[in-house]
């Protein structure tokens, strides 16, 4: 690992608190606090215009926040020593078309001030699948090849924190799989990664934690286990009594219909999981419920977890946030109407 950015090794790779950014009349980022720990892979998700790229640029000291604080590798974001420890693949990438891929890499090594041998630079091109094109001019590269080169540029100076803004937007499925392997390899080496991607499956495969932005705010954040949780189970039950219905209602919200008269879906209260003494997740809610239902003489024919994908969760969170905002707008309209009425 490079010595750059390593003078505060116990600090998170990046930490920010209450970031805000307005562009003219548009508040792009309202209030964002997040953290990427050392060696952690964090996914940044959210719809178009949610503020992901603006947040990334503020984290890297490329956009000045109106408010809030950032520490990059334990230092202020604009500090050259912090930047030297960071590899960045921007969303909009463009490299000097008159240079060869090897020359682009060598240029970035010089700019970074790191000591990276020619052999190591070639290894980076091999890693992104451009080893055979090292001597070719970038002007003749396809978009996907340029994006691969961008990834090599981001990795070449042995960063301890890598920020990838839509790293697979120009890549074919094979290229996306390659990037996934690269990210997993970084994690193995203890390199922290912040990954902004619309490809939710990709994020689900490689990320330890996810931060979901919606209209410039953090709509949800947590580990994949926390976000996905075992939140729902489908049960096939016969012989339900009022007491059993009450027991079910205590376990969570009951949804019926669609899958037959005996089938119900239970959204477990509190996500249905607790922490045991060792801090491990343990799902006691379901076995306890089944035991109690059996004691109440209910016939339990089937119990199956409903698998919730990150995509489902993301859509649910974003729809929930949109509904909350619509309700707030309606309440504000009503208040304004009441005030107008009172003034008459
Ligand atoms: N330099 C700028 N000048 C004016 N407005 C900007 C600027 N940069 C971003 N914005 C606005 O800020 C908002 C957030 O943009 P940003 O690029 O951060 O979103 P994003 O979540 O990365 O979107 P996408 O997924 O489409 O890339 C958008 O409304 C955008 O138009």
Automatic annotation (TrEMBL):
<keyword id="KW-0067">ATP-binding</keyword>
<dbReference type="GO" id="GO:0016887">
    <property type="term" value="F:ATP hydrolysis activity"/>
</dbReference>
<keyword id="KW-0547">Nucleotide-binding</keyword>
<dbReference type="Pfam" id="PF00005">
    <property type="entry name" value="ABC_tran"/>
</dbReference>
<dbReference type="InterPro" id="IPR003593">
    <property type="entry name" value="AAA+_ATPase"/>
</dbReference>
<feature type="domain" description="ABC transporter">
    <location>
        <begin position="14"/>
        <end position="240"/>
    </location>
</feature>
<dbReference type="InterPro" id="IPR003439">
    <property type="entry name" value="ABC_transporter-like_ATP-bd"/>
</dbReference>
<keyword id="KW-0813">Transport</keyword>
<feature type="region of interest" description="Disordered">
    <location>
        <begin position="324"/>
        <end position="344"/>
    </location>
</feature>
<feature type="region of interest" description="Disordered">
    <location>
        <begin position="262"/>
        <end position="283"/>
    </location>
</feature>
<dbReference type="InterPro" id="IPR017871">
    <property type="entry name" value="ABC_transporter-like_CS"/>
</dbReference>
<dbReference type="GO" id="GO:0005524">
    <property type="term" value="F:ATP binding"/>
</dbReference>
<comment type="similarity">
    <text>Belongs to the ABC transporter superfamily.</text>
</comment>
<dbReference type="InterPro" id="IPR027417">
    <property type="entry name" value="P-loop_NTPase"/>
</dbReference>
<protein>
    <submittedName>
        <fullName>ABC-2 type transport system ATP-binding protein</fullName>
    </submittedName>
</protein>
């Amino acid at each position: 690992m490079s010595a750059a950015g390593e003078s505060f090794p116990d600090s998170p790779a990046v930490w920010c608190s209450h970031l805000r950014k307005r562009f003219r009349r548009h508040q792009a980022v309202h209030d964002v606090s997040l953290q990427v720990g050392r060696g952690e892979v964090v996914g940044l998700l959210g719809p178009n215009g949610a503020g992901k790229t603006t947040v990334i640029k503020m984290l890297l000291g490329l956009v000045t926040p109106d408010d809030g604080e950032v520490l990059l590798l334990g230092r202020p974001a604009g500090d050259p020593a912090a930047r030297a420890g960071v590899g960045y693949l921007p969303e909009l990438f463009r490299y000097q078309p008159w240079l060869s891929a090897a020359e682009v890499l060598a240029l970035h090594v010089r700019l970074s001030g790191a000591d990276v041998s020619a052999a190591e630079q070639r290894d980076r091109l091999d890693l992104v699948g451009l080893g055979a094109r090292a001597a070719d001019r970038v002007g003749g590269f396809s978009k996907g090849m340029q994006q691969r080169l961008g990834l090599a540029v981001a990795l070449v100076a042995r960063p301890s924190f890598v920020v990838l803004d839509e790293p697979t937007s120009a890549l074919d499925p094979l290229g996306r799989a390659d990037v996934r392997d690269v990210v997993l390899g970084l994690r193995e080496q203890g390199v922290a990664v912040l990954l902004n991607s619309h490809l939710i499956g990709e994020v689900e495969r490689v990320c330890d934690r996810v931060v979901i932005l919606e209209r410039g705010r953090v709509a949800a954040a947590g580990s994949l286990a926390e976000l996905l949780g075992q939140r729902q189970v489908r049960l096939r039950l016969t012989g339900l009594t009022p007491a059993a219905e009450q027991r079910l209602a205590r376990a969570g919200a009951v949804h019926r219909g669609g899958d037959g008269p005996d089938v119900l879906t239970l959204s477990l209260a509190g996500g249905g999981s607790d922490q045991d003494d060792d801090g491990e997740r343990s799902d006691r809610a379901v076995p306890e419920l089944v035991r109690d239902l059996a004691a109440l003489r209910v016939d339990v024919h089937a119990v199956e977890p409903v698998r919730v994908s990150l995509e489902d969760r993301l859509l649910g969170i974003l729809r929930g946030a949109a509904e909350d905002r619509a309700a707030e707008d309606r309440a504000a309209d009503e208040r304004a109407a009441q005030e107008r009425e009172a003034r008459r």
